[in-house]
Design a protein that fits this description.
The chain is an all-beta fold. The protein has a 57-stranded parallel beta sheet that branches. A two-stranded antiparallel ribbon has the order 43-44. It is rod-shaped and about 115 Å long. The mean pLDDT is 92.
């Protein structure tokens, strides 16, 4: 029998093959002291109940109780099989001091419960409020669940499942809610073709469209839109784990549509996040359309202590207008691929932070409003950035910062406010086969990483072992260097590149060493072809440098250059071939063709050591 503190309209006590059909229960009110259950199913210890149908009932205006649950299943230690709850209308449950539910389970002993084949279909559940939150459907520790084609309105949480398995949540619709679908623990979920809109974050600090903290899960074809976080936080889709020491694996999020997440401190589109000492692996986020939100369109985050996220693919997604953040980002992840995504009109494009074994390939990034198109930083390693197209970037096109073993290959960058590709404080970087044009500052930069130490800006990392090969760098005649190598960078090679239309110097080397400039085509520079300042062990060989205003090779004034070698170059149509200002030493100039200079073939400051400039061709048999 039912407990005396329960007021029950229709009760089934361990009844097999039962039907509760087409009843109307209106206006149950118990003065706040009792639990109100219009329809209740109770299963005793050791009893198995099968084949229960609850259909076509109207339950409304249920109020003023401790717990108010429209359809209630009380699983003590029994077994329930084949329960169908469909086409019921449950509305106006309010003034519940503890709990308000449209359809719910009470679990006394979860380890002993055996509930299976539960179907909840075609119900309308509306206007559910409780002491903290009102929920539409709550199930726990249940297998073989179908929740299909239900409608929810004005409930805090539409569907709440805990530790269930073999679950299908399909075709449901919800409006005026805080959380749509919340699935925690369990496995084998299909969450498909559901629509949630009109979200408002009222309780606590966070709201969710779809939460699937489960294994072996597919989230596809859902639509989440119009979420007002009321200055709080909201995630449209969250997968991963929600508590420590849990693992999630084999999760696919695809073909979902997310839009209009606003008035939020944080509003994310698709979030893969795990709690401390937890892990997630084998996750695919593909073919989603995310637009008009406050924060990241796609975020993969494993920053907490002991976290591990690995083997993640983010592909074929469209992110449009992440107003305050990057379109797609990953933090502290292993083995991740960003491929064939489009990010437009966002604060930044794509970001890898402390990532190992990453691929960013075939993506389109356009119209960033403040941050780089692609950024890799914070000790990321073994990263390939290739075949991407970046256009109208309000910062650097591609940034590689304090990272190791990074290849930047075959990208097209057209239009940046800063530099096309910049390598900052990184080791073993290859920049190859890229085409860069329309930059406001430079096409390429290699520099050190500075940070504050006791309020003083200090150089923490230099860039070393950088190969720049087979690129096309086209300047816009702006008053800046087309390529710069600075801040004690070392072992840098520029080879087989085409560098055109520099506003100042085509290549500028400042305070660096072991730099080789080989077999490049340099044409049309507003000042110098190759400019060298306070550097050592610089090798300029077999380049074609022409149509330069000042000097093809400029070893500038008041410098401390040493061990500079200029050999086998074709230098033509400039003010001077090689200009050697005061302070240079150890300069060798041999086997060059130096022709059509308006001032000097080679000019050496009289205070310098004698320069060995033998075996050059000066355009005339008689010499310069």
């Amino acid at each position: 029998m039912f407990s005396p503190d329960f007021t029950v309209g229709i009760g089934l006590l361990a009844c097999n093959d039962s039907r509760v059909v087409n009843n109307t229960i209106i206006g149950m009110d118990e003065g706040g002291d009792y639990n109100i259950m219009p329809i209740g199913v109770i299963i005793y210890d050791g009893v198995t109940v099968r084949n229960v149908l609850i259909s076509g009932n109207t339950l409304e205006n249920l109020s003023n109780g401790s717990k108010i649950i429209g359809v209630w299943i009380d699983l003590i230690n029994g077994t329930l099989q084949n329960l169908t709850i469909k086409n019921n209308y449950i509305s106006n449950i309010y003034d519940a001091s503890q709990e308000a539910l449209g359809i719910g389970e009470s679990i006394r002993n979860p380890e002993a419960v055996k509930a299976s084949n539960i179907q909840i279909e075609g119900n309308i559940i509306a206007n559910i409020t409780g002491g903290f939150m009102g929920e539409g459907v709550y199930l726990a520790n249940t297998t073989e669940v179908i929740i299909r084609n239900n409608s929810f309105h004005n409930v805090s949480v539409a569907i709440d499942l805990s530790n269930c398995s073999q679950v299908s949540i399909v075709g449901n619709e919800a409006s005026e809610i805080q959380d749509f679908i919340f699935a925690n623990l369990g496995s084998n979920y299909l969450i498909a073709n559901n629509t949630g809109h009109g979200f408002k974050v009222i309780y606590g600090n966070w709201g969710f469209g779809i939460t699937a903290l489960t294994n072996d899960t597919v989230v596809e074809g859902n639509s989440i839109y119009d979420a007002n976080a009321l200055g709080k936080n909201f995630d449209a889709i969250w997968v991963g784990t929600g508590q420590p020491n849990i693992s999630a694996h084999n999760v696919t999020v695809r073909n979902n549509h997310i839009s209009n997440l606003y008035d939020a401190s944080w509003a994310g589109g698709i979030v893969l996040w795990v709690d401390s000492h937890s892990s997630a692996s084998n996750v695919v986020i593909a073919d989603n359309n995310v637009g008009n939100l406050t924060s990241k369109g796609v975020l993969i985050d494993a920053l907490r202590t002991g976290d591990k996220i690995s083997n993640v693919t983010v592909k074929n997604n469209i992110v449009n207008c992440s107003r305050n953040d990057d379109g797609i980002a990953a933090f502290k992840v292993m083995d991740i691929n960003f491929t064939n995504n489009t990010v437009i009109n966002s604060r930044g494009g794509m970001h890898l932070y402390n990532v190992s074994d990453g691929l960013i390939a075939g993506n389109i990034v356009e119209n960033t409003t403040e941050w780089p198109g692609i950024k890799v930083d914070a000790n990321s390693s073994n990263i390939v950035i290739e075949d991407n197209s970046l256009c109208r970037i309000r910062s650097d096109g591609i940034e590689v910062v304090t990272s190791l073993n990074v290849s930047v290959n075959s990208n097209t960058i057209d239009g940046t406010n800063w530099t096309g590709i910049t390598v900052i404080g990184s080791l073993n970087v290859v920049v190859k086969d890229n085409t860069i044009s329309g930059t406001n500052i430079s096409a390429l930069g290699v520099s050190g990483f500075f940070s504050y130490n006791n309020s003083k800006l200090v150089l923490f990392n230099t860039s070393r072992n950088v190969l720049v090969e087979n690129n096309v760098f086209i300047g816009s005649y702006r008053p800046s260097d087309l390529v710069y190598i600075v801040d004690h960078s070392s072992n840098v090679t520029l080879a087989h590149n085409v560098m055109l239309n520099a506003g100042w110097s085509s290549v500028a080397i400042y305070k660096s060493s072991d730099v080789s400039v080989e077999e490049n085509t340099i044409r049309n520079a507003g000042h110098s072809g190759v400019f060298i300042y306070n550097s050592s062990k610089v090798f300029v060989e077999s380049n074609s440098i022409e149509n330069v205003s000042w000097a093809c090779v400029d070893l500038t004034e008041n410098t401390n250059n040493s061990d500079i070698t200029v050999v086998k170059n074709n230098l033509s149509d400039a003010g001077s071939g090689v200009w050697i200002g005061f302070g240079n030493s150890g300069v060798e100039i041999h086997f060059n063709n130096i022709v059509n200079m308006s001032e000097w073939g080679v000019l050496n400051h009289p205070s310098n050591d004698v320069v060995n400039a033998t075996l050059n061709w000066w355009g005339n048999l008689s010499g310069p």
